[in-house]
């Protein structure tokens, strides 16, 4: 066997991106590589801030005293992460438009710094988990502007299938970065001693069926009939089969990460209170749907259509999200069809 053990072959994320680009676009000038590299720098910065949070000289815990366009109270770390990603992205010279959860309007990069990519991102996902040390993350998706465009709203108001790359970083017991540039999903783990993301999950394929469902069960009284029937079936399988386990972190990154690795489903349906669901399409729904599909799973909306095909009307649009192992998502679809 070739002498390529992880111990002696630290395959870094940058090397991986370059190798992918070689496969997909031999004439590429490495611009996407530069952009992805900047994102990893932002992720390392946030990972480092999270590791030291609450200690002397690192005042990133608690509320910022402001709120975002969705009416959520912002945490200090939401704003720190937002600034970090805006700065590292703008400086690459590869971006035309940025969309972030924390800002109402898209950010149009000035001509001297402008490039041809648009990055939509959730700088800090799982804000409610920051102060208690539970896993949080960063989610991002990348579009290329239309030919000749200098960067416009239309370049980011596009369905997720148009993305050229998507990924997330999870600040958990390990710092993971999962990434797709449209040819499968690969996963990297931050080696703190090297300061590098090293490939640990090559060509990730998720299980066709899992044994976990993940949903905020506190909303059960407000669910629609299909969601209620589906969850009831997972708890009390007809014929007395083994029930599914419930796991719900409350950070989409962590709940999706577990779903990618172990299989099962993650759902955030519309309900009587969140009539369009809670998760934001551009920087939560699409990137995760992209990764799940690239890993062989399925991601749909309440009409049982591919989430990646849904058209956004606003950069902060929300949508119901059902994603995970193919057979599990098929079960959800069956319930929607049965309920009419
Ligand atoms: P964010 O912290 O970026 O605002 O995202 C929170 C999202 C997502 O991470 C998670 O899946 C969901 O909110 C949890 O919502 P509930 O607290 O309503 O369960
Ligand atoms: Mn938020
Ligand atoms: Mn989020
Ligand atoms: Mn967020």
Largest sheet descriptor: 8 strands, mixed
What ligand molecules are bound, each kind once? Answer: 2,5-anhydro-1,6-di-O-phosphono-D-glucitol, manganese (II) ion
Poorly predicted runs are none
The general outline is: globular
Q: What's the helical proportion of residues?
A: 25-40%
Report the portion of residues in β strands. Answer: 15-25%
Count of runs of 4 or more consecutive helical residues = 8
Distance between the termini: 55 Å
- SSE sequence, one letter per element: HHEEHEEEEHEEEEEHEHEHEEH
The counted number of beta strands is 15
Strand order of the largest sheet: 4-3-5-6-7-8-9-10
Overall average residue pLDDT? 94
| Protein structure class | alpha+beta
> What Rg do the Cα atoms give?
20 Å
Structural commentary:
- The protein is of the alpha+beta class and 340 residues long.
- It is built from eight helices and 15 strands.
- The chain has an eight-stranded mixed β-sheet with strand order 4-3-5-6-7-8-9-10, sandwiched between helices. The chain has a five-stranded mixed β-sheet with strand order 12-11-13-15-14, with helices on both faces. A two-stranded antiparallel ribbon has the order 1-2.
- The longest helix has 22 residues, at 31-52.
- The relative contact order is 0.13.
- The model has no long low-confidence stretch (mean pLDDT 94).
- The structure holds 2,5-anhydro-1,6-di-O-phosphono-D-glucitol and manganese (II) ion (MN) (3 copies).
- One manganese (II) ion is lined by residues 122, 125, 252, 284.
- One of its GO terms (molecular function) is fructose 1,6-bisphosphate 1-phosphatase activity.
- Pfam families: FBPase (PF00316), FBPase_C (PF18913).
- It catalyses: beta-D-fructose 1,6-bisphosphate + H2O = beta-D-fructose 6-phosphate + phosphate.
- Residues 206-336 form the Fructose-1-6-bisphosphatase class 1 C-terminal domain.
């Amino acid at each position: 066997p070739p002498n390529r053990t992880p111990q002696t072959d630290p395959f870094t994320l940058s090397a991986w991106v370059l190798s992918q680009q070689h496969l997909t676009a031999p004439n590429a000038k490495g611009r996407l590589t530069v952009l992805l590299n900047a994102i990893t720098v932002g992720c390392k910065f946030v990972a480092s801030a999270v590791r030291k949070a609450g200690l002397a000289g690192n005042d990133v815990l608690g509320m910022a005293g402001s709120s975002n366009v969705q009416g959520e109270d912002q945490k200090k770390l939401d704003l720190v992460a937002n600034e970090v990603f805006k700065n590292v992205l703008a400086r690459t010279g590869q971006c035309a438009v940025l969309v972030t959860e924390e800002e109402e309007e898209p950010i149009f990069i000035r001509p001297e710094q402008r490039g041809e990519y648009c990055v939509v991102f959730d700088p800090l996902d799982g804000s409610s988990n920051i102060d208690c040390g539970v896993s949080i993350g960063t989610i991002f998706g990348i579009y290329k502007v239309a030919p000749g465009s200098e960067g416009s709203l239309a370049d980011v108001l596009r369905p997720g299938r148009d993305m050229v790359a998507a990924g997330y970083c999870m600040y958990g017991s390990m710092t993971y970065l999962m990434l797709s540039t449209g040819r499968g999903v690969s996963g990297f783990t931050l080696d703190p001693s090297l300061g590098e993301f090293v490939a640990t999950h090559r060509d990730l394929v998720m299980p066709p069926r899992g044994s976990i469902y993940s949903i905020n069960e506190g909303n059960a009284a407000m669910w629609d009939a299909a969601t209620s029937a589906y969850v009831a079936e997972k708890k009390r399988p007809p014929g007395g089969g083994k029930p599914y386990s419930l796991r719900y972190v409350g950070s989409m990154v962590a709940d999706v990460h577990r779903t990618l690795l172990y299989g099962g489903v993650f759902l955030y349906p519309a309900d009587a209170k969140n009539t369009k669901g809670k998760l934001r399409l551009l920087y939560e729904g699409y990137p995760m749907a992209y990764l799940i599909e690239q890993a062989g799973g399925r991601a749909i909306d309440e009409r049982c259509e591919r989430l990646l095909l849904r058209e956004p009307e606003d950069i902060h649009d929300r949508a119901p999200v059902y994603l995970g192992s193919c057979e599990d998502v098929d079960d959800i679809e069956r319930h929607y069809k049965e309920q009419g």
